[in-house]
Amino acid sequence: MKWYVPFLMLAILTAPVVAFSMPQLPFLPGTPSIDLPLVATFEGGQRYQAGDYPVIVLSGSYHEMGRQYGGLMKTELNDEYTLLINTMDRKRYTKEMLRDLAQEEMNKYPARQQEVFAGMAETSGLTKDDILILYDGLMIVLTSAESPASCSFMAAWGNYTADGSVVASRNWDLSDSLIVPFNKWYVLTVYRPSDGSNGVVTVGPAGMRPETSMNEKGLLIANDNSGIFTDEAPDLRPDFVSEFFRFMLDSSDLGGLMIAINGTRPNCPWIIDVAGPEGAYVFEMMTNNTRLRTGDGVVAAANHFIDPAWNLPPPPGHSSSRYNNLLMQADAAKGSIDAEKMMEIRNVSWENGGATFLHTALSSNHPEELTSTDHQVVFVPKTRTLWMKVMEKDWQKIELAPLFEG
Predict the structure, then answer these.
(1) What is the model's pTM?
(2) Is the pLDDT of residue 39 over 80?
(3) Which residues of 128-209 form beta strands (DSSP E)?
(4) What CATH number matches the domain at 148-184+217-405, 3.30.310.70, 3.30.450.20, 3.60.60.10, 3.40.830.10?
(5) Which of 206, 207, 142, 215 has the alpha carbon at shortest distance from 174?
(6) Nearest CA-CA partner of 105 in 71, 145, 143, 63
(7) How far apart are CA 371 and CA 275, in angstroms?
């Protein structure tokens, strides 16, 4: 029987194709393996899939990582950019106006971030101006409409957690009309720079400024809008949230991260949340003063400054209630909080005594303006284990250590 001859020839002819289309990643003894389906590769970068979320792992120089990101996320970046341009066009912002706004921010970004942008522009099919518009798109959208400040943070440790380890969590909330259309492009991005800086993870819509970041040392940084817009910086300063990338690249412990934050003056009032294996803190930052908060095993934040020394007017009811709700839930679960318990706490809606929104009207004057918790994160710094969730999707567990080291 000669049936095996053509079969063998076919196998020989197709073997190189298979080898190139399914690249084998090197395995080093003692190195954790990445237990996620590999979807695509591009110039040393990999695209995996964790449930509903793409996981992009980038390696090399910042320019190389930008090229990898642009190549692996080309379709998503272009589709998202088109939606952003069309959305802003309906708000009477021309592409030229958006380009001018983005260029105003360009000089505020450090060289490493600009190198990422330059690399993306070479492989994504978008120009560098387009990349800037997309990166700043969320900020531009936010300034074009009123959106109530509604994010929150809570971390527990010590006698509040099951084993004493830190368990941190954050909700990122925005108006439905502003952010929900972009939810389909959520991505977890891992940067593994070759210059000796820390590996960094960001969570957010593709190409847009991320507001939740972690690094390989088990540090987390996030932000809550303070709801205060009257305290503007008297001089030119970088967008503080865009500095998160630098903080995560350069900070190897919680003390170093806190020094970096204290050494950077904010462009406007911010509430900055940080956590690490050693504990968690909340920075209440005005343009000319900063106050630091922590707790005896638990600390929380919403969208108002807690320290009475600020002598500020009473906060919005939805902010003070969310802050109090989180602390009450932590007290009720004292001694048993782990990642699963923290997710249970984060699943409780604001209407039922929690801090999470889902198509909720926060203003009686504008009941048609709805707010939702766009994304949620639970993070255990000690193990570098992340759980993430986008609105009505399920929680997804992702082990970050293999992504940094694999």
Answers:
(1) 0.90
(2) yes
(3) 152-156, 167-175, 186-193, 200-205
(4) 3.60.60.10
(5) 142
(6) 143
(7) 26
